[in-house]
Model the fold of this input.
Amino acid sequence: MKLQRMPRTRRRDRRTDSNEIMSVCDAQRWTARLTSTTHRSGTDRVHEVAQSVPADVYINVQGDEPLAHPDHVNALVELMKNPGRVVGTIKTPAPRMT
Done:
């Protein structure tokens, strides 16, 4: 499994329903907690977190986004600094298969 550094934020919590991901987080000494296995999406997982962890912004990076780069997340963080924004998203172009 390839690990990469995400941008520095005041608080970085990882939430997952995967014991495999929890094992990686434990090995890296990252804060992580298991969420319900009944969620149908990462958005549902973020909603669960938002019910118990107060924050100004929640950033949801899906585990199936291997091409997400820290600069992409930084761009989203900058976007969300605008108090008029209530939601933002980024996309990572998929490489063209030939």
